[in-house]
Amino acid sequence: MEEKVLQAIQDEYPDDFSWCYGCGRLNEKGHHLRTGWQKEQTITYFTPEPEHTALPGFVYGGIIASFIDCHSTGSASLALHQKNGHVIGDGSEPPRFVTASLKVEFVKPTPHGVQLKAVGNVTEIHPKKWSVETEVFANGVLCAKGEVVAVVMPNTFVQKS
Amino acid sequence: MEEKVLQAIQDEYPDDFSWCYGCGRLNEKGHHLRTGWQKEQTITYFTPEPEHTALPGFVYGGIIASFIDCHSTGSASLALHQKNGHVIGDGSEPPRFVTASLKVEFVKPTPHGVQLKAVGNVTEIHPKKWSVETEVFANGVLCAKGEVVAVVMPNTFVQKS
After folding, report:
1. Taking CB atoms and an 8 Å cutoff, what residues of chain A touch B103?
2. Which of A33, A156, B66, B146 has its Cα between 20 and 30 A from that of A64?
């Protein structure tokens, strides 16, 4: 049975910021990743599409990197939102983050055809810069590790006119 | 005008290894990344699809990570193939690589709607382990840097029965 995050930070982003291919709810062709709390950790689930293969039977690494990327920016948003005194659903707009750096260590080939689970630990390293360490599991087995530095979205990251 | 790699290592992979979502020529829904030599460096071009956005106007980081991933494994394959005395088109099967680790530094927001160019430098660090350092350009401007360690595909990476 597929598990699901009930309260996700991405559900709270304003429409203008919901076009991300990884986690934007308005991007029809995207992955629709959703990230929430599980006690002190953050979690995201994802079941890769049939075409998301490296070789038949195994998940493509770029998809795992994408999974970790949005899981991490979502995790940072969850953490800063909480630090600011908010909870999901209280009507306040969560902060948006962008990825400064992304590192993925591929621990073992990730089996295709099962739901993946990302589990994150978030640490503040500066009021506008957060570190997210992630483990990705398939069938309970650790397949990849991620290290992301996420920063509060700068003003240079605005829509082109 | 879009530029194109004329002789790509991915064109030489056997059919069984051409299902990668990033660079498999047989994966109909994939990105079809193709990597070749440009003097001593390796290059790959990619024009993201309309849906590959982070915000409208900018390319999604997970897509840039995917671009660097396949560019790097292709670059390692090119380099080892050359070390083994082969050139693309001589009828010999190139070695296949998998990604051990992938690091992406996002230097600046990557504009959407233009062809991206990845330029790689490949170094042997062990007969079965190669390092690929990549710079990704949009309109000639450096937008991201990649560091990948690619390893010759191990026997554990075989198709599930």
Report:
1. 101-104
2. A156
Q: With respect to residue B3, please indicate whether it lies within any of the assigned structural domains.
A: no
Range of the domain at B85: 9-157
Mean pLDDT of B47-76: 98
From chain A, the residues in CB contact with B66 under 8 A are 60-63, 65-66
Which tens digit of pLDDT belongs to each residue from B94-142? 999 999 999 999 999 999 999 999 999 999 999 999 999 999 999 999 9
Q: How far apart are CA B45 and CA B22, in angstroms?
A: 12
Q: How many domains does chain A have?
A: 1
Longest CA–CA span in chain B (Å) reads 46
ipTM reported for the complex, 2 dp: 0.96
> How far is B31 from A66, CA to CA, in rounded Å?
14
Angle between helices A61-83 and B61-83 (to 10 degrees): 150
Number of CB pairs, chain A paired with chain B, less than 8 A apart? 151
Q: For residue B1, is it within any domain?
A: no
Single pTM value for the model: 0.96
- Report if residue A3 sits inside a domain: no
Asked if residue A35 is part of any domain, the answer here is yes
Q: What is the CATH number of the domain that holds A28?
A: 3.10.129.10
